[in-house]
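Board notes (copied after class):
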Amino acid sequence: MNPPMRITHLATTLADGAGIAARRIHEALHRAGDDSRILVRDNQATTVATVCTGTPLPGRRERLSRHLPWLGNFAQRMQYRIGRELAEAARHGSWELFSPPFSRCRPERHDWVRTADAVHLHWVAGFIDYPRFFASQRRPMVWTLHDQNPGLGGFHYASDLVANPRLSTLEWDCAAVKQRALAGHPLVVVGNSAWTTAAAEKSTVFPAGTRFETIYYPLDTEAFAPIAKPAARTALGLAPDGLVVGFASASLTNSRKGLADLIAALELLVENRLDEPPITLLSFGREPDAALVQRLRLRWVHLGHLDSDTIKRAAYSAMDCFVVPSRAEAFGQTAIEAMACGTAVIGTDVGGLSEALDHGRAGRLVPVGDVAAIAAAIHQLADDPVTRAAFADLGRKHVMARHDPLQCVRQYRQLYHELGQPARG
């Protein structure tokens, strides 16, 4: 049996989907007996992680440039160029995120990184400085991908690059910085879905010899388990009858998550007088756009940002169906949370989201951006409690089988030990 290891995870934040996934991987390893720790950039009210703050560059520039002569002023010039070109491009297009490969944080200096048996990177945009960090780390590393950014330049999804060709040169130049920094570095890149892994394998950023694996997110199916719908609705102050349609995202204003498509689908049901039984939209996450709220002619109950898994469990359990209408998605963590709570899920057939729904066997898949198909799927499930119950049952069984935390621990432990034995006895 492999001995316990000291593992240091690096993550920019624990406040969004990627951060939640990183925390769950850490907690699964910790419960299994490993000395697992998380180092983060953003200071949140949590006892799970330690914060690693930024280190100002002025006063150290000469010393730094002696060790990394190609960085120095180049990083500053590149940052200025990125800011200028993004501001200009914003007049003609939009995108979710563009993250430069530079940072003033220096997690590589932290004792947790220096003394770790295994360093495990997660969503680290704005946390690691690619040239400096990888120049200081020659040990093999595990890198779990929560989106496409590590294999791209600055964008986090390739669809944003396609939609913003004006930024293609800047994107390639940022990718070149990453490529130079990673050259010759031993990596195991882990996709959160087979789709994410396949996309990473096509990237030119990762060095030759990079190993690619897929490990699905762990989920505690005791923390996320069905509650009787009447009890869940009573706990949330909802009426016991009617159809409750669910949606959740870290930010409801993130257009990639497709809330506007769901609103349009619900409006279509109203226009066609298919809103019987009465429909309630139940959502959680950061506040939605006021214009969308005013547009919807149905009851909308928004629970705000939820940190508590107990309240999330009640919310998912109160729903008759949960809709994930994403335009792009590496996996779909909210989908498996809802499925674990015994709620039927409708999701777009995009990215890794189709894997979350077992390619349509554990949930209903609809084409991306197809408002009529979303509306039809909601109406069909509302009209067919037998199918709804079947999806609820199959969905929970699928999550319990594929997202077992112990299975995730075994897979990551195997990677850590294949990369190198513990430094201590």
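Comment from the instructor: The chain has two domains: 6-218+405-419, 229-402. The longest helix spans residues 72-89.
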